[in-house]
Specification:
Rossmann fold, 10 helices, 7-stranded parallel sheet, alpha/beta
């Protein structure tokens, strides 16, 4: 009996204690959930976001050390942010940006350029500026997707970005070593962004996924956050793409 009591009384040490985690796009959705989970593991948080008021509310909610309000698609703002970050960073996760949908023929060239800038060049600029501020063994985590891997009307640029990111991740892992670089590729995740994109079709999409996914439920931001923190903790993970879609790719939905 005493042995059982001793075992049950053991407490696990927080796995990110004393480490600094930067979440770019950390005021809502996957970014906020990742910040919350990292904080539970003892991390010190620096959050960024576009909306100052929402960012402040989120920072207070998760106990962030500091915040910076800027648009992460503004490449100059990314450089300025990292120049002003004091000390050493352990981990950086980038969840900012959103997919761009539409037929190429209907897009103006500036729209097409922005679709690429908002992801590919944003990640490049984060890597250029974050690498020298990060400790060896820390990780830069990028966010991609799985849903646009199959060619469909209106997904030309979204698909291009989706399939380009694993290659970018692998190459950055070599260039930034010993800093690690990894990519999380979610399918549908039930976030406010998904709600904004789907509008009245949101509940139908949820129902479809609950009924057809092998896991019989919809992937939540907390699921992605758990993976992100595991990547931070497991220092053997590098240059890899981690799909998290509940089996959505298996069904092509």
């Amino acid at each position: 009996m005493s042995g059982a009591t001793g075992i049950s009384g053991l407490q696990r040490q927080p796995e990110l204690a004393g480490q600094t985690v930067v979440v770019i796009g950390g005021s809502a959705g996957i970014g906020l959930e990742t910040a919350r989970r990292a904080r539970m593991e003892g991390a010190k948080l620096i959050l960024t976001g576009r909306d100052q008021q929402r960012l402040q509310r989120s920072a207070q909610e998760v106990g962030a050390e500091s915040t910076a309000a800027f648009d992460a698609t503004n490449l100059n703002a990314i450089g300025e942010f990292f120049r002003n970050v004091p000390g050493t960073i352990d981990h950086v996760m980038v969840t900012a940006g959103q997919p761009h949908y539409g037929r190429i023929a209907d897009m103006k060239i500036d729209e097409a350029r922005r679709a690429l800038d908002d992801h590919i060049l944003m990640y490049v600029e984060v890597a250029r500026n974050a690498g020298s501020k990060m400790r060896p063994g820390g990780t830069l985590i990028l966010l991609g997707g799985t849903g646009a891997r199959r060619p469909r009307l209106g997904l030309a640029l979204a698909s291009t970005v989706t399939v380009a990111l694993p290659a970018l991740t692998a190459n950055l892992a070599l260039e930034l070593a010993p800093v690690r670089v990894n990519l999380i590729a979610p399918g549908f995740v039930d976030t406010s962004l998904s709600a904004a994109l789907l509008g009245d079709e949101l509940e139908n999409r949820r129902k479809q996924l609950r009924e057809t996914l092998p896991i019989r439920r919809v992937v939540q931001p907390e699921d992605v956050a758990a993976l992100a923190v595991h990547i931070m903790v497991n220092t053997a993970l590098n240059g890899a793409t981690f799909d998290i879609d509940g089996g959505q790719q298996l069904l092509g939905i």
